[in-house]
């Protein structure tokens, strides 16, 4: 698929990897819609990226069904549909299942469990279902890119996050089989660590340990992840795979 002239949607597009994805798509001539629930971050992203091309935006909680239906309807009405969907929105709520601190035992928060699945998993299901239906109606095919994670294989302290990203990877394979007859490809990208607002929330000592465990002794760059997304888009024979971009790190 050629990027120029396409209509692309990036969820969680107001910061981090999502904003970098939007920037690359704009640079390649796509009309880009960024969806995010953080109004302040959204406004800043629009100010930064709008000069780069045809950028549109909607404040949207992509884990909320009614909000997703309304957002996709608006995009369809204004842009005529979606060619590329990048399911990037996610939150990180690191906690052990149970842990002991002195005489106190702490359990993983149920609220954080539900919030993580809402933002990381339900959002991917809702956006893909709604955009997928729109793609079928238009009969033009398309591409869904799901952002998973190296943590999908399991990582201590990330029960909810790892579970959500493992499920995203599984849905990627499932949908690639279901949607291929309609000309819709589904591909996953599983990033390792890259310095973004999300990873900056991780304690510095732990981050340094991860850097040392990475065979290349460094984290990825936003530029490298933008190049990965571009490769996924332009290679029409790539389908149903999870591309690991992690510097060789394994937990």
Short description:
By secondary structure, the chain is α/β, with parallel strands linked by helices. The chain is 44% helix and 18% strand.
Structure notes:
This protein is α/β, with parallel strands linked by helices. It has a single domain, classed as 3-Layer(aba) Sandwich (Rossmann fold), CATH 3.40.50.720. The protein contains 7 helices and 9 strands, in the order E-H-E-H-E-H-E-E-E-H-E-H-E-H-H-E. The strands form 2 sheets. It has a 7-stranded parallel sheet with strand order 3-2-1-4-7-8-9, with helices on both faces. Strands 5-6 form a two-stranded antiparallel ribbon. Strand 1, helix 1 and strand 2 form a beta-alpha-beta unit. Helix 1 packs across helix 7. The relative contact order is 0.14.
Number of strands: 9
How many distinct helices? 7
Main sheet summary = 7 strands, parallel
Low-confidence stretches: none
From the spread of the alpha carbons, the general shape counts as: globular
Along the chain, the helix and strand elements come as EHEHEHEEEHEHEHHE
Give the helix proportion (percent range): 40-55%
How much is the average pLDDT?
A: 95
> Largest sheet, order of strands side by side?
3-2-1-4-7-8-9
**Whole-Å distance between the termini?**
34 Å
Query: Can you say what the CATH homologous superfamily is?
Result: NAD(P)-binding Rossmann-like Domain
Q: How many individual domains? A: 1
């Amino acid at each position: 698929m050629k990027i120029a002239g396409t209509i692309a949607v990036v969820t969680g597009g107001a910061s981090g990897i999502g904003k970098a994805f939007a920037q690359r798509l704009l640079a390649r001539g796509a009309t880009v819609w960024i969806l995010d629930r953080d109004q302040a971050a959204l406004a800043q992203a629009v100010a930064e990226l709008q000069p780069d091309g045809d950028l549109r935006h909607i404040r949207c909680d992509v884990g909320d069904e009614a909000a997703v239906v309304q957002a996709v309807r608006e995009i369809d009405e204004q842009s005529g549909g979606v060619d590329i969907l990048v399911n990037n929105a996610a939150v990180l709520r690191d906690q052990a299942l149970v842990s002991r601190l002195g005489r106190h035992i702490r359990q993983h928060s149920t609220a954080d469990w539900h919030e993580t699945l809402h933002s990381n998993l339900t959002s991917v299901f809702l956006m893909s279902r709604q955009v997928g239906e729109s793609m079928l109606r238009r009969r033009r095919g398309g591409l869904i890119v799901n952002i998973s994670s190296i943590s999908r294989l399991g990582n201590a302290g990330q029960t909810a996050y790892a579970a959500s990203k493992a499920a995203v990877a599984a849905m990627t394979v499932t949908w690639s089989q279901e949607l291929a007859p309609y000309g819709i490809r589904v591909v996953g990208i599983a990033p390792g660590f890259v310095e973004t607002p999300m990873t900056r929330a991780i304690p510095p000592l732990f981050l340094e340990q991860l850097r040392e465990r990475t065979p290349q002794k460094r984290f990825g760059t936003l530029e490298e992840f933008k190049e990965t997304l571009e490769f996924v888009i332009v290679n029409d024979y790539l389908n149903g795979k999870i591309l690991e971009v992690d510097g060789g790190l394994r937990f």
